[in-house]
Amino acid sequence: MSITVAPITPSFVAEISGIDLAQLLKPGDRDAIEAAINHYAVVVFRGQKLTDAQQIDFSAQFGPIHSSAQRARHTGIKHRLERTELADISNLDGDGKVLDANARRRLDWLANRLWHTDASFRAIPGALSLLYAHVIPDQGGDTEFADLRAAYDALPDSTRKQLEGLIAIHSIWHSRGQLDVDRSRYTEQELASLPPVPQRIVRTHPGSHRKTLYLAAHASHIEGMPVPDGRLLLMDLMEHATRPPFVHAHKWREGDLVIWDNRCTMHRARPFDTTKVRDLRRVTTRDVASTLEQAA
Predict the structure, then answer these.
(1) Which of 18-32, 58-72, 105-119, 175-189 is the least confident region?
(2) Torsions phi, psi for 124 (to 5 deg)
(3) Nearest-5° angle of CA 127, CA 295, CA 249?
(4) The whole model's pTM is what?
(5) Which of 4, 200, 218, 219 could serve as 168's disulfide partner, Cβ 3.0–4.6 Å?
(6) How confident is the model at residue 72 (pLDDT cuts 50, 70, 90)?
(7) Is 102 exposed, middle or buried (0-12, 13-18, 19+ CB in 10 A)?
(8) What pLDDT is attached to residue 147?
(9) Which DSSP helix (H) or strand (E) runs through 55?
């Protein structure tokens, strides 16, 4: 093994150095990176130089890749990136120009500033996300991460018991609706392509075997509860899980690749001057099954 793992805290976020991610990983290095992800949930690689194809090839060493949901909910527009495995986490249009303030994709993209978990709105949700920085503005644009394992551990026993077996309904249209994004901006085909799905609120992380909350801005309501009661419970859990002891802010540099585990974290983008270019590209791997089919 040639890599070095430097923890930011004993159990959450680490920097990994001593490796060029543009090259095929040695089996020992791949296993060491996976072990670091299982332990720290978020890992950071600095100073990488990756093409889109190299980012995708690296990501594929950690599981099957989700096609970008952006393609499903933004039909009939010119997409900047050719590869469907990549989500365009930028403020650029199909011609590489900064998006107009009222552009539908910009308004949709603003929901990344809500606390969320990638692809929890899909029947088979996201596992790992791998986000690579091409262009970073001079100020702002950090990404904050919340440790949902530590948040679960800190819950009172009575709350943990209350959460046993609860299922939330996740929908990307719910998260967009929180910012008053008009559903009429989307076609019926786009809306139908991403229907609501059920996911457990508490699950066991398969790599660490730790219990973890599974929350997101996509979580609309809780099955079997009046909608207002379920939403208040979800709001309380989100507030608890994003308290400062559970949160780390990553300050981006060009060439950073950050991997996070959606099965036990939430994240959100922070504000920046959106007249300046911010160009990041994300690959998300698929989980093995719906959370309902995995260990609670």
Answers:
(1) 175-189
(2) -100, 105
(3) 40
(4) 0.95
(5) 219
(6) low
(7) exposed
(8) 98
(9) helix 52-60
Question: Given the structure tokens 């011609």, which residue do they identify?
Answer: 95
- CB of 34 within 8 A of CB of 65? no
How far apart are the C-alpha atoms of 157 and 120, rounded to whole Å?
26
User: Which residues, other chains included, contact 249 with Cβ-Cβ below 8 Å and sequence gap of 6+?
Assistant: 142, 143, 144, 145, 270
Domain ranges for the chain, please list them: 4-289
**Is the Cβ–Cβ distance between 126 and 286 less than 8 Å?**
yes
The helix/strand count (H/E) of the chain reads as 9, 15
CA-nearest of 273, 232, 277, 231 to 254 is 277
The values of phi and psi at residue 162, to 5°, are: -60, -35
Q: How is residue 191 annotated by DSSP?
A: H
DSSP E strand boundaries for 157-286: 167-170, 197-200, 202-204, 211-213, 219-222, 247-250, 257-261, 265-269, 279-286
Cα–Cα dist 284/88, whole Å:
12
How many alpha carbons lie under 13 Å from residue 254 in its C-beta half-sphere? 9
Identity (one letter) of the amino acid at 1?
M
Alpha-carbon distance of 21 to 134, in angstroms, equals: 15
Q: Are 120 and 218 in contact (CB under 8 A)?
A: yes
CA angle 153, 158, 164 (to 5 degrees): 75
Query: What fold does the segment set 4-289 form as a domain?
Result: Double-stranded beta-helix (3.60.130)
Tokens of 137: 């503005």
Q: Where do we find the tokens 């650029």?
A: 92
